[in-house]
Amino acid sequence: MGQLEIFPYNYNTLCDTYRCSGVARVSIGIKGEPANVYYNICKECLADLAREIPIDLIMLRGDVQERIENAISEAPLKQIVESREDIQELLGERVTKEITIDYNDYGVRALVEIARERGLSGYSGLSKKELVKLLEETEKK
């Protein structure tokens, strides 16, 4: 399956969202597919949709990761804090909580997408259980 994309929509038609009377400004669909299968929505409905996306899925996007890394590298605190021990010293306590993702909450398609984004190989044809194990093992490295 191709990757879903958002395209500008420049026609004067109503949003495809049920009971919305806004004018459609974007189309959501797979590039190269017939235009009649796109979902045309207004900017307000697109914003509502974006607000509903779980944060852990947003954090998997490469561009989000890059922006976070850039912001951290430019932050003045980065010059002071270079290691976990420095953070502990500044806080005066031990920092032990790790952020973990429970891959069991995701479907096979999402797990395959995560594996693809991480540049892993050999994940096609794996069961959900095997995909979860693969992702958990690579996360530890």
How would you sum up this structure, described in words?
This protein is mainly alpha-helical. It folds into 3 domains: 4-52; 55-99, no CATH class; 100-141. Helix content is 45%, strand content 9%. The protein has a 3-stranded antiparallel sheet with strand order 1-2-3. The model has no long low-confidence stretch (mean pLDDT 79).
Poorly predicted residue ranges:
none
Strand content: 5-15%
* Number of DSSP strand runs: 3
Please give the count of helices: 7
- Overall mean pLDDT score? 79
**C-alpha Rg (nearest Å):** 20 Å
Number of domains: 3
Write down the overall geometry: extended
Portion of residues within helices = 40-55%
Major pleated sheet: 3 strands, antiparallel
Strand order of the largest sheet: 1-2-3
Structural class: mainly alpha
* N- to C-terminal distance: 30 Å
Q: N-to-C SSE series?
A: EEEHHHHHHH
